[in-house]
Every structure is written in structure tokens, then in C-alpha cells.
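Something for you to look into today, if you have time. Just paste the record in under my message, thanks.
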Amino acid sequence: MTPMLRKIDRDVKRFRQIVRGVIKKEFRKYLTQGELIGRQGKHIVSIPLPQVEIPRFRFGQKEMGGLGQGEGEAGEALEPQPGTEPGQHILEVEVSLDELAAILGEELELPRIMPRGRRTIPVEKLKYSNIRKVGPETLRHFKRTFRESLKRQVATGQYDPQNPVIVPIREDRRYRSWHVREVPESNAVIVLCMDVSGSMGDQQKEIVRIASFWIDTWLRSQYKNLDNVYVIHEAFAKEVDPHTFYHLRESGGTKISTAYELINQVVDTRFSPESWNVYLFHFSDGENGDSRDTERCMEILRDDLLPKLNLFCFGQVRSSYGGGRFKTDVEEAFPGETKIVTCEIRDKDEIYDAIKRFLGKGL
């Protein structure tokens, strides 16, 4: 590598360190910005960083006069002219989701997640650890071939220490070969569930979208294979795609049990707990249709969902209509249950603390 390329690499590395430092310094602010969701690519996020342009001289044409020359008479007052250029510029930098997850883990002091129980599946892996006498030339093992040729020439008396030339023949050639082995690999699925009833306004739905984005970012950094399920509910529940989940605007009544019934069905049919680590994050303003439906929710959780889940998190988002009591109902129905985490999110500023509470157990 040339000195110039090495210097460029150092400069790029230094620039990335500066960007990382700026993001960490203002991380709580970035965490509450819904714009990041819209700036998300497949593996990167564009983050706007403020940057003040360094002043510099601009040289004009030679025929222009010097100081105090131009139109107007001596002593004539000058009218102030409005500026046409911004004083500050925004620099957009691309940050990988892995890097954002690392910063999130550092700032919130999140523990690494250890997959529980037998929730791994065997995956076939190719490992080049065998040696064979036949194979493609691209897999020829040079050291093994040289050693076999040397052994043959020494054994037959052809090796000359004064002229140590080793010439392999066809029988000397050795080739790397593979074998298939099964290794355990952890899989996980995140079920993100959001109340889209009329009592959930745009501000509440924005809080849910932002929190869901960061939860997904963190868990994706912990599992090699991660799947997502998006469920919305009002009087009825349905599974949707990510774009619909993050952008939907709906209204209607609330019947939470329909969501839990659907989620239980999805887990049973597609994500067996024997092979998957299952996480459920449910966000709502806590208003349910009636107490009978709440009782049905607790029944589904107790008998069906909780035995299959690594973690169930309920985030109650404060709305302009006030807060419901579903969070209290869950806490009263499952006192001391380690798989359940609840919290209240009153505004965007509390997303930071909610994520730390949800993910702080490392389950």
C-alpha cells in the first residue's frame, strides 16, 4: 500500500471516529428522531450532522476595484443586504446499523443476549479440513504437495542436497477437501404489535415506530438470523408488512385479545419455540374495549403465549385521551413474572428509558 493510500485510510478512520463521537454525544437526541426511519437503507442509516463551513477567501476578477471602489458617492450610507447563503450546512453521514446497535448498547449499558434453552437449529456448514489425492487445481494444497514430493524423492534417492529441486508428479498432488457438519445456530423472531385505534394519535404512533426501530436494531445485532412479524390491531388484528406498520394511519375501537390470538397462531404455525427465540413487544395506550376482553388477554398470555416467549414487553403510550389501565392489569395478573416487562412512555423523551428497561435483562 502506498503512503498516500495509508494516509487516506488513516484520515477515513479518524473521520469515522469523530462521527461516532458526535453521535454518542447527541445519542439521546438522535434516538428520538423519527426521520431516521425514513433514512434507513438495507444496512445503513443516513444521519444528518451539523457542520459549520470554514471561512475562506474568494478571489474576484482582476478588473474589479479595490477597497472603497464601486458605485455610490463617498459618505453615502449603504443599505443592508439580506444574505442568500446559509450559515450552517448539514453533513449527512452513512452509519451502519451494526455501528448504531453498538452505540446503543454502550450508551444504554445493555447486556449481551444469551439465547435460552434448546432454541437453536442445526445448520449445515462447509469446512475445508480434509485432504484428498484428487480435486480441482484451485484447491491444491501447496505445502502437502511439496511434502509428498520431497518424501518420494528422498525415499527413491532422487533428492540432491546440492541441487534441492523438488518436482511434484501427479501422485504427489494433494487437494483440500470439505465435509459438511451441522452446527447449532440461534434464530429469533421479533413480534411488533401496535394499537392503531382511534385513541392512539399520530404522536403516540410515532413513539411506537421509533421505539420499534431501535429494538429491532439491537436484537438484529444479537442474532445472526432474525425475522420480524408486524401486527396492528383495533377492533380486529391483522399482520402487515413493515412499511404499513411504520406508516399506517387508522382509527376504530380496541379489542386487544384479537392481536394476542393472531400472534399465538403465527408463533404456532411459523416459529416453533423449539427452534426460535420469540420476543413480543406490544404498544398501546392501555385502553381496551371492556374488562371481559382484558380477562381473555390474560388467559391467552398465561396459557398460550408466555410459555413460548423469551420476553413480553408492554409499552403503554400516554395519549391525549389519558391512559388506560392495561399495564396495571398485566402487572396485577403476573406479579414477579421475569418474562414480562412493562413501562409507561409519556413522550419521545422517555423512549430512551423504555428501551433500556425492555432490553436491560438480556433475555
